[in-house]
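## tool: complex_structure
## caller: assistant
## args:
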Amino acid sequence: MKNKILILSIVIPLIFSACTQTSVSPINTGTAPSTLTVMTHDSFAASKSVISAFEIANNVKVQFIASGDAGTALNKAILSKDNPFADVFYGVDNTFLSRALSEDIFQPYNSPLLADIPDQYKLDPQNKAIPIDWGDVCLNYDKLYFSQRNLQPPKNLEDLLKPEYNNMLAVENPATSSPGLAFLLATIGHFGTGKYLDYWRGLVANNVQVVNDWETAYYANFTRWGGSQPIVVSYSSSPPFEVLGSKTPLTEPQTAVITSDGSCFRQIEFVGILQGTKNLDLAKKWVNFMLSTPFQEDMPLQMYVFPVNPDASLNETFQKFLAIPENPAYVSPDDIAANREAWINAWTETVLR
Amino acid sequence: MIEKRHRTITAVLLWLAPICFLLLFYFYPLGSILKLSLARSQQGLFSPFLQALNSPISWRVLGFTLWQAVLSTILTLILGLPGAYLFAHYNFHGKSLLQALTGIPFLMPTLVVAAAFNALLGPNGWLNIGLMQAFKLTSPPVQFANTFTAILVAHVFYNTTIILRMVGDFWSHLDPRLGQAARMLGANRWQAIRWVTLPLLAPAITAAALLVFIFDFTSFGVILILGGPRFATLEVEIYYQTISLFNLPLAAVLSILQLACTLGLTILYTRLTRHLSIPLSLKSRVATQRRLATHRSKLMAGVIIVILLVLLILPLTGLAVRSVTRLEPNRGEQSVTSPGFTLDFYRALEINNNDSIFFAPPTKAIAVSLGYALATTILALVLGFPAALALSQEAASPISHGLDSILMLPLGTSAVTLGLGFIVALDKPPLDIRSSWILVPLAHTLVAFPFVVRNLTPALRSIRPRMRQAAAVLGASPGNVLRYIDIPLMGRSLLAASIFAFTISLGEFGATSLIARPEYPTVPIAIYRLISRPGELNYGQALALSTILMLVAGAGMLIIDKMRIGDIGEF
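## result:
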């Protein structure tokens, strides 16, 4: 009997590893030059057909290391910079950009495709971090809630201080949530570092609800999904995804976005070639591929973010329902890096204590 | 003298595999990341320690972490012990099923549990709607989310199964005649429990309470999602310092503080329990269990079962119901759907709408999860059994006493810290496994291994050494003693240990999310991918996959529970 257990305990892991090994053999047994390793965060996604077109064209197998949120993934890249286990890192955004640049994990690459990319996205003059996509964090509201009550939805950040919007807003904690931090940055960009805390004091007086994560804000607090607050901090892409992600196709989203000047914050995501890569040529090809239209047009449906390449066109649903703020609030990556802790601490003292 | 040396050699041999495992996959990565983190301090090695010790925030966080863990553990014991009594003493229809059901909360992802509680207790949950209608209230009377109560309730919800299983299984082997004798000698029911049963149960209760406490002490998801932004444990603070602020030196100090607390507590535990266990004549369950015959016992069983069902099962049932219901509320206007039964979310799980490279149908995610769970269970048993055996040797050698306290450390370690430690340390051949799938079962085993040891040790310690000696005198080899005395007598503790290892692996999220390969998502990872996106279909699929996880876990636990290797299960 003991032997049986012993045998089982040896055989089962072997079978297990055999199964897994065979299915990933192109990754593990391929010779070094034919594998490109891309490190990214767990929101990364792409179409099979798009990736395999790149693989076939360049005779390469792309291996993704995609685990942990954006901050965790970046930390992994930084901590392994002396012995990098990837060639390329994608997914550092403008709130984390300074951390990546000051840790010097990227090498510069002046991709020829950058010529077509609008300057507003190029936040690193050395082109170590190359912009790939953007997405806006904006206030979303439940259209039905307001129409049923004959109430005007708020038009801008200032409106939220009015008594008629008492207890109507749910936001995420900037210490734990990426959209939460983006919204705090929007208020800092819009009201200035001297006045943003006054604005938050006003929101507290008007009973703003704070939760730690987007999932709770959207699926537990938002009236659209059975909660109590009809206004929530989410993305400008959320209304089109309400349409795309509905089971019986909706003709239009039941939520809308407030896009007044300075009420949204634009998150821009970057890719960079890691220092110490042994596949520099392939890595460059991958960066160019991410900037090219096939990948750029694939991103919105896969990752809910939008192309920096003006030649990439959006699908019909986005063209119809994506609201793009003309003047999102702006805070420079250096300011964010220098003040992140102080701003979050001040916000915590003001809003949570 | 010879015997002493012999004992030391035995201990060394037994400890060899577990210690090598811990050194390689726990201490080495942990040491590497702590060293690297502290080396980043610009004002010298000691400044982050001073920074942490001088900051009122660290003390407040530590105080809160301890306080909520103590309260949660006491509440879990209060709820768990009567249930353990019921499972230990009575046979009734559906007992195995009930036991498996009460184990399911243990492995559910926090986001899903939060959704379940919200559906019951949220501002628009069943309870508040009911109360508002009954008493004509205009606002919801019960505030649950983002309260201290929510943290306590969730911890009880998650960890009651630890008490039910560990104490219940040990209790079921206690000789009922000891209590009966006390009653005969004039003790009343409570005196018999206080002076006879409780002291005999003490090793199992303290071991279970220790595990519950460490789980609560290092709580992350529950605090973050159900507790909300006003509460932070050390684990939450470590995550914030590491990821959001990249203050690695401070994060390292907080990790060390958390480890020191775990170690201190475990040393206290080993001291306390060293003299607690009394060798007993363990009895087969056939001899200890009876039917629910009297009205009194039926009433008691009914009350306990209802409480367990309401607290542990009802929230999950709500989820399962929602997964087969159209979520689109009846909002009039353009929406043509109305609430009703649907299997659409389950069907949608099979369809790769966007041709995504990381798409995993539920069958694949389940296969991946079960594969990891199987590997974890075997690895944890193979490593945990010799460790438990060494710990239980009569007058265990000093080596064992020292090692006992460090076994629990992996449970008290921050998942972010250890996850990053894997990346930093396991990056050179022959151990270049930082992007390998094998990291996942290894990480799971680190959590499951202490559970296996804590489950097996009290049972092994209670075996009368005279039985082993008698067998040896009669000519049994050490292997045969193990085979015919120890393993059968450990009885259900071995099964309980397997079930814990299995469910820990099935439900683990924190560490897995840091190291899993995107093309091989476990079920909790796949659920997280769905629920972190807007739209009815994503949310519905997340609920559907959660329901599938419950079914798979429940079935798995029932199968292990019914396993009969020799006479282990029978005993």
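## assistant note: The CA atoms of residues 37 and 269 of chain B lie 31 Å apart. The longest strand of chain B covers residues 90-91. Handing back to user.
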